[in-house]
Amino acid sequence: MTAVAVIGLGTMGLGIAQVFAAAGYTVLATDSHEPARANALDRIATSLAPRVEAGKLSSIDRDAIRSRVQIVDGPEAMGQAALAIEAVIEQLPAKQSLFAALEQVMAPDAILATNTSSLSVAAIAQGLKHPDRIIGLHFFNPAPAMKLVELVAHPGTAPRALDTARALMQPTGKTVIDCPDRPGFIVNRCARPFYGEALALMEEGRTPAEIDAAMVQAGYRLGPFSLIDLIGADINLAATEGLNRAMDGHPRYHVFDALRAQVASGTLGRKTGRGFVHPDPLPPAPQDAPAIVLRIEATLANEAAWLLAEGGTTRDGIDTALKLGLNLPRGPFDCLQAHGPATIAAELARLEQAAPPHLKTRYLPPPDGLTA
Fold first, then answer.
1. Which residues of the chain fall short of a pLDDT of 50?
2. Same domain, 69 and 202
3. Which end of the chain is more exposed for a tag (fewer CB within 10 A), N or C?
4. Does the reported pTM lie above 0.90?
């Protein structure tokens, strides 16, 4: 039976191990922290318990999933794996050192994958003996529940590595979307306007509750501030700051003072009991709700158009990724088609003309413009 290796048994790594075990793979799992290794199988059983209690998974199948996860002492025990996925600390030296160790024991045709959400896959591959087999497999949290996986190729990735990764992912039932090795990949990058333009509206005097109410009325499961509250304002701030740095401070990735102030106040969302809107119910949508929706969807479409122009992905890939990764009712190019390119272009032009100095150039479309 094909074996998959998972290194790092925090929440994300353990979830990835569970995904592959549920798909029938033998999973060789490890963590540098001994307690994480010691309680990993119990944590998998705890994770599966709600499904057993709901009658969606039998106790026999639960035990089978658990039995397919083999805890090993370290990377040196992972030589038989066809694929190794790391979910360790987001530090470049740590990931490079781990992959260098895996290269010593794994077969030359084995695939080495990083679950990074913030580092360059090309940078991780630098200095390795076989950089052509390094890819990104970016799972979303919680890995067992989220259907999306971003498959990231750096410029030196071999097509064979990508084909092998897709084949190995197929039994997991995940939707695998090709995306470029660019900051934020697809979802984390294209999500920025969803939050950022809501914060720009707040900067202009609109309330988080009325902005969210407008988006919910338009079919969004959660408005941008409710989603920040769910994720945690601190997590959202860290992601925004990281992308801002990676994109050289471009105004499309501006870090708004309101988000910094929210984090400084300690009202981070659901995990602290209060956030931008949580736990209060939303009010009725304001009369100009369609204008709020158009503004946010125009910036979503613009960011997606910039990413598409950079290559490495497709319109359908971007739309699917945003719908699966953020539970949006429609993707950015769906929005572009629904409103029409002329309407989106006019809204962006209006916003650019009215933009304060710190947001100038935020709303400019890509050189080739916007086409549905």
1. none
2. no
3. N
4. yes
